[in-house]
Amino acid sequence: MRMSAPENSHELASIKDGTRMELPSRKSFFLRVFIVFLSILLALTGLVGCTGDTAVRIGITPQMSTRLIGYMIKELAGRQGIDCEIVEVPGGIYNLQPALESGSLQIGTELAQSAWNSVLNKRSVYRASNLLELQHYYLKHDLQWNPLPMGRDVYTLAIRKDLAMKENIKTISDLIPLSDSLTLGAPTQYFEDADGYPRLSKTYGMSFGTTKNLPTELLAQNLRDRKADVIPIHTLDGLLQRDELVVLRDDLDSCPGSELGIVIDESALLKHIEFADIIDSLARTVDSQSLVFYNRLVVYNHRTEEEAALQFLKAHNLIVEDPADAGKTREELEEKRTEEARSSSDTQSGSDQKKDESTDSSSQSSKSEFSAS
Fold first, then answer.
1. CB 3.0–4.6 Å: which of 158, 217, 222, 351 could bond 233 by disulfide?
2. What pLDDT was estimated at residue 45?
3. Where are any strands of DSSP class E within 209-346?
4. Which of 79, 133, 141 is nearest to 106 (CA)?
5. With a threshold of 0.90, does the pTM exceed it?
6. CA proximity to 291, closest of 93, 65, 71, 112
7. How far is CA 102 from CA 53, 64, 96, 143, in A?
8. CA pair distance 71, 303, nearest whole angstrom
9. What is the Cα–Cα distance from 230 to 200, expressed in whole angstroms?
10. Contacts of 329 (CB under 8 A, 6+ apart)
11. Could you give the CA distance from residue 158 to residue 167 in angstroms, rounded to a whole number?
């Protein structure tokens, strides 16, 4: 049976248990509804504010060859109004990948060879023909693996300059006769991955007198301190250019180069479609030679990672701030930025050298050739 509404909002209404109460006025009713709505809105706002999930989280590992890409993405996204946060991920891809799959990170940068071995658990050396299989695996986890085809890296060995000059060592094969008396320092991962120690043993028949587990970020320092004679090195690292290191050529071509790749969560891409253009622009501009140069600026402490990434983007016309640069080609812009960076690098190096000479001239003659510049 349909009930008719009371003629006056102040009439008394009956309720189930027979008691009687006064109905609220229309004005009071709407006020209460507004208060409830406001309370819900404030609660939801507070919840979002506490979780901090509004920012896109970009994971970067200690691997130098991948770090600048993360800062480039953050800079380009920020200029399109997308809030991004850089998150340091210790332990390399072993910790990066689970965070991407769980959604705690939305973007990361990896090397194809590392992903092939450590994520897909393949024991073979990665080849360009494996890209589709690699991408298919990531799609099953709602992730996209986007290659940067010109950002190619080779994982090889480096030794001290004094050792290379004394023994005339230029290739990995040249190292074989001495390997039994040398110490190899490398991350645990290097001794397990197919492109690491297993590759050396199988291809070159090489074994070292001593092997030592070292964190990636301490490899070069241990080489300088003579706690290791040989270390693995990525050719994209800025360390490639340091005077005290000699990078050995993989003369048997046992490990072909693999490209960098940007991994992005598909939900983040759907929410911020601008990332598609950002990734595409980096795929067209990031090349090995430029990446090594800007990594070197960081290694020599001439630029922070944020500054080096920004300088790269300006040099490649992905960011134009100076009106005078608006009509210049990419080659002209890169030449200008590179010259600026080199000028700054030379100035800083000269300043550092004078400082060293003035503060430690008395012991200059006893310094090792291997001292950090």
1. 158
2. 34
3. 210-213, 230-234, 245-247, 258-265
4. 141
5. no
6. 65
7. 14, 24, 10, 11
8. 13
9. 13
10. 317
11. 14
Pairing of strands 143-153, 155-160: unpaired
- How far are the Cα atoms of 301, 321, 328, 340 from residue 209, in angstroms, in the given order? 34, 55, 55, 45
Closest CA to 173 of 249, 257, 256: 249
With CA atoms as reference, report the closest residue to 283 among 325, 316, 315, 307.
316
Produce one character per residue of 56-66: b if its CB has 16 or more CB atoms within 10 Å, e if not. bbbbbbbbbbb
Can you tell me the distance from the alpha carbon of 303 to that of 69, in angstroms, rounded to the nearest whole number? 15
- φ/ψ region of 229 (left if φ > 0, alpha if ψ in -120 to 50, else beta) reads alpha
The predicted-structure confidence for 174-213, as pLDDT tens digits, reads as follows: 999 999 999 999 988 788 776 788 888 889 988 899 999 9
Q: Amino acid identity of 87?
A: V
C-beta neighbour count of 131 within 10 angstroms:
18
* SS3 assignment, position 57: strand
CB-based burial of residue 137 (10 Å sphere; 0-12 exposed, 13-18 middle, 19+ buried)?
A: middle
Query: Parallel, antiparallel, or unpaired: how do β-strands 20-22 and 12-14 relate?
Result: antiparallel
Cα angle vertex 43, ends 40, 49, to 5°? 145
pLDDT, tens only, 216-245: 778 888 888 899 999 998 888 766 555 578
Strand partners, 321: none
Distances (CA, A) of 29 to 5, 34, 37, 39, 180: 15, 9, 13, 16, 88
Q: Which residue has the tokens 């990665």?
A: 126
Q: Are the beta carbons of 255 and 173 closer than 8 angstroms? A: no
Q: In this structure, what token pair is assigned to residue 238?
A: 């800025």
* Cα 162 from chain centroid (whole Å): 32
The predicted structure's pLDDT at residue 64: 78
Percentage above 90 pLDDT, the chain: 43
Half-sphere exposure of 341 (CA within 13 A, CB side): 26
